[in-house]
C-alpha cells in the first residue's frame, strides 16, 4: 500500500522505525542482538501479534540516482524502464556490504516466499519527478517488483499533493492510507527523548519545556 503524508509528517521515520523493529525482532529471535536496542522489536509497533519480515529499506531518490548514473556509464537510453534486475543491482551495490554478499540469494528467496518486505521511501521525491517519462519509470519498477515478488509486502510513501492532485502517481493495485498527525503529548515525548540525546539533563529539560510552551502557543 501507499502511505500518504505531508512533507515532514513522519513518513520516512515510520518506514525506518518499521524496518528497525522488524530487523531487531529477527535478531532478538536469532540470539544475535548484541548492541540492538531493547525497544527495537515487534512490541514497539503497538500490535500484539504483528508479522515480522526481513526489511529492504530504499530511498527511491537514491535508487534512481544510481540508475541514472549506470545508464550514463553503460551508454543505455535514459528513458529505458527499470525492472527487477536494476533493483537487484542497487541492492547488491549499495545496500549489501561485502561481508553480506552471500546473503543476496537468500534475500530474494525470502522475498519470493513473502518473508521479506520492500519499503520504498519518496515515490514522488526523485530527480525529474515532474517529467512524465520518469513517472512511467517509477510505475514500471514498482509494477515489476509487485509481479515478481507477489507475496512480499511493498510499502511506499508519497506526498498528498502529488498522489491526489496530479493523479499520475497513483499505483494500480495498491491500497492507500494517510499518516495520522502526531498528537501533542506524543510530540512533547518525542522532543524530550531527542533533547535528552543532545543536551545535559538540565539543558534537556529546559529545551523540552520551551518546546512544549511553543506547542501550546500554536493557534
Average pLDDT rating = 90
Beginning-to-end CA distance, first to last residue: 34 Å
Strand segment count: 5
The total count of helices amounts to 8
Task: Tell the overall outline.
Answer: globular
Note the main sheet.
5 strands, parallel
The quaternary structure here is: single chain
Strand content: 5-15%
Identify the strand order in the major beta sheet.
2-3-4-1-5
Runs with pLDDT <50, length 5+? none
Order of helices and strands: EHEHHHEHEHEHH
Estimated helix fraction = 40-55%
Rg on CA atoms, Å: 20 Å
Tell me the structural class. Answer: alpha/beta
Could you characterize what this model shows?
The protein has 219 residues and is an alpha/beta fold. It is built from 8 helices and 5 strands, in the order E-H-E-H-H-H-E-H-E-H-E-H-H. It has helices at residues 11-29, 60-74, 84-95, 103-112, 132-148, 160-166, 184-198, 201-217; strands spanning 2-4, 54-59, 116-121, 154-158, 176-178. A 5-stranded parallel β-sheet has the order 2-3-4-1-5, with helices on both faces. The radius of gyration is 20 Å and the shape is globular.
Amino acid at each position: 500500500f501507499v502511505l500518504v503524508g505531508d512533507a515532514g509528517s513522519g513518513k520516512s521515520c515510520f518506514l525506518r522505525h518499521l524496518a528497525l523493529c522488524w530487523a531487531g525482532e529477527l535478531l532478538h529471535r536469532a540470539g544475535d542482538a548484541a548492541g540492538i536496542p531493547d525497544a527495537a522489536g515487534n512490541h514497539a509497533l503497538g500490535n500484539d501479534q504483528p508479522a515480522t519480515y526481513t526489511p529492504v529499506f530504499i530511498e527511491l531518490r537514491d535508487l534512481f540516482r544510481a540508475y541514472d548514473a549506470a545508464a550514463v556509464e553503460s551508454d543505455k537510453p535514459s528513458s529505458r524502464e527499470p525492472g527487477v534486475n536494476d533493483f537487484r543491482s542497487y541492492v547488491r551495490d549499495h545496500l549489501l556490504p561485502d561481508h553480506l554478499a552471500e546473503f543476496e540469494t537468500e534475500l530474494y528467496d525470502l522475498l519470493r516466499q513473502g518473508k521479506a518486505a520492500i519499503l520504498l521511501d519518496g515515490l514522488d521525491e526523485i530527480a525529474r519527478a515532474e517529467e512524465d517519462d520518469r513517472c512511467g519509470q517509477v510505475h514500471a519498477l514498482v509494477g515489476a517488483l509487485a509481479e515478481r515478488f507477489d507475496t512480499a509486502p511493498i510499502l511506499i510513501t508519497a506526498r498528498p499533493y502529488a498522489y491526489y492532485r496530479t493523479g499520475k502517481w497513483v499505483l494500480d493495485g495498491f491500497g492507500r492510507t494517510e499518516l495520522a498527525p502526531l498528537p501533542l503529548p506524543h510530540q512533547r515525548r518525542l522532543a524530550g527523548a531527542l533533547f535528552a540525546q543532545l543536551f545535559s539533563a538540565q539543558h534537556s529539560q529546559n529545551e523540552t519545556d520551551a518546546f512544549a510552551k511553543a506547542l501550546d502557543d500554536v493557534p
